Amino acid sequence: MALSQRAVASLAAPNLLREVFNEVKDIFQANNAILNIGLAQNELMEDKLVAKVKECLKFEPSDASYGDPHGSKKLRGIVASMLNRHFKPRQELTLDHIIVTTGSGAALFFLTQAIMDPGESALVLAPYYGNFDADLCVLTGVDLVPLYLDEHDDGDMNVRPHVLEAALQNAANRGKRIKSLLVTNPHNPLGKCFSRESLEVLVQFASRHKLHFISDEVYGLSAFGHLLDKDEKTEPFVSVLSLPNLPDLIDTSYVHVVHGMSKDFNLNGIRVGFIIEQYNAQVIDMLKLSALFSYTTSITDRLLCNLLSDEEFIDSFIEENQMRLAEGYRYATQLLDEHGLSYISADGGHFLLVDARSKNPHIRTFADEKRVWKHLLDSGVYIGLGQVFHTRVPGFYRLTFSLKPDKLAQGIRKLVTALERNVAQADQK
């Protein structure tokens, strides 16, 4: 056999998101012909971002040299300062708490290797981002166990201690050795933020069972619910690091946070993520070692130093981005209401889940859901397939609303047309 057992196991592990991407040609190409309303990318700040990045991107002789594998001191210090301003951690972050990686997916991969052993499992609040199946599992020997917060409703984010305990017990009954709990906040794909009270319940649950608490906060600065409610004093996103009583809830060495440049700063292609490791020096040491395999380029490091050091621009960018996301969300939900398409309301991130059954009651199975998706793809439109996010009920699609208004409107019209056409075809049978 040409492959290692690790590779064979990784190839055999289910990864629905990758299977879907294999069916969509050139989905990651900037000039592809497909109308993309499914990938989590934000086009709303493109004008301000492009102009600023052009100012910051200048090649210097030092950029031809090796940099620091886990990020320069300057960059890590600037990132710590930015997070102190916006995540409001209970204890101030320093550059020594930050590890720079080539994207937040790489951050989760290396963090998983540092804190989990082959054969162990991670509980992940579900539905969940489909590429976690790769980020945490490829070549690590780790697998994921979905934890749904409600017996039937995938959109329910109310955290009930007895549900958490039952999920852990069910996993143990199936022979799973649970080592960590992975939470996305704001949630992907639901686009909702966990309340402070819910976070505390989740952290206490992890503490009771000595689980590592991994908080993926890559959409943390893209929360906009406070603008929808017209109450700017209400901030829906709460970082786990900001909990004032965190040391009373859990051994803080078990708390790990991931952030990055892709989502909150609309720089998906830059491929830079951050592991925020405030309380565990041993994990930091391990991550510095593995950083040799996740080397951010010197020119990227300096580009981000130039960008993030302009605090006035960054703080203004974050504020305006949240305002534009709120506007985009309002417009998307207005269009969905006009077309009679139900959805799960959101208050953070770039997307929401659309319930296509409200327009097409013939969607009863995941095969039906994928058939509609393929019809839409054949019409030149890509949307997120619910099943790749491990939804339990067929008929949900993840719709990105952080797009130019005309593109969003066109995509929703095509979605409605595809649903109506499938209804007509089903009625004729």
TrEMBL record:
Keywords: Pyridoxal phosphate, Transferase. Belongs to the class-I pyridoxal-phosphate-dependent aminotransferase family. InterPro entries: Aminotransferase_I/II_large, Ethylene_sulfur-biosynth, NHTrfase_class1_PyrdxlP-BS, PyrdxlP-dep_Trfase, PyrdxlP-dep_Trfase_major, PyrdxlP-dep_Trfase_small. One of its GO terms (molecular function) is pyridoxal phosphate binding. Pfam families: Aminotran_1_2. It comes from Syncephalastrum racemosum. This is Pyridoxal phosphate-dependent transferase. GO terms for biological process: amino acid metabolic process. Residues 37-415 form the Aminotransferase class I/classII large domain.
